[in-house]
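Structure request: UDP-perosamine 4-acetyltransferase, Microvirga subterranea.
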Amino acid sequence: MRHGIVVVGAGGHAKVCVELLQAMGEKVAYCVGGVDSPDMCVGIPVLKGDAHLESLRQVGYSRLFVAIGSNSLRARLSAVATDQGYQLMNAISPHAVISPSARLGAGIAVMAGAIINAEAEIDDLAIINTGATVDHDCKIGKAAHIAPQTSLAGNVTIGALSFLGVGCKVIPGIQIGEQATVGAGGVVISNICDGATVVGVPARTIKQ
Ligand SMILES: CC(=O)SCCNC(=O)CCNC(=O)[C@H](O)C(C)(C)COP(=O)(O)OP(=O)(O)OC[C@H]1O[C@@H](n2cnc3c(N)ncnc32)[C@H](O)[C@@H]1OP(=O)(O)O
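Returned structure:
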């Protein structure tokens, strides 16, 4: 028997991802949340505590999606789940537009209204959030998050675990390092180092 998908997380991001998976025609069996999670997540029962991952695996669940907004936590729990033998699913809205030449990793989320253009590469566990645009030849690193309405022009590279807040703009060819943060509404016109936080128009560094 084909089991439903296990979703890790029970917060706001998980709500959206559960509904993305359902829109793809999948059944979500359970969410697995922290001990303080609500009992239900958009109608899906929530099991509290990561120990449930192992017990669900033992009774035959094998497909899983990690729906946690924190990039580092998403990466860590995905590694735990794959070590337990889970296969990471993608949650991709039927209302996203994705080029046939784009390359998508595993465990990624692409929300409604997102556009991913020709030969873009989206690495494992990345989030391309609502209405974000990733133009031709962009490279989005592992477990990076491109927040709603952010627009990347062509040939932009985003390093692993980086976060671009809501409504950012990045001009063509820019390279943003790993674990970098761009504040909401930032306009990036020069390269950004690993670990830096930048804000504003044009974006300036507030933390190195
Ligand atoms: C579906 C979803 O919800 S997806 C989630 C989307 N989430 C977001 O877009 C959140 C984006 N987060 C931000 O923009 C945050 O403000 C961050 C991450 C850039 C900075 O957060 P913090 O490290 O807590 O910085 P803090 O709030 O202390 O601000 C530091 C300074 O930067 C300024 N600043 C912070 N964010 C911004 C911004 N987006 N644009 C311009 N200036 C900013 C502050 O005014 C402050 O300036 P000051 O020192 O002159 O007073």
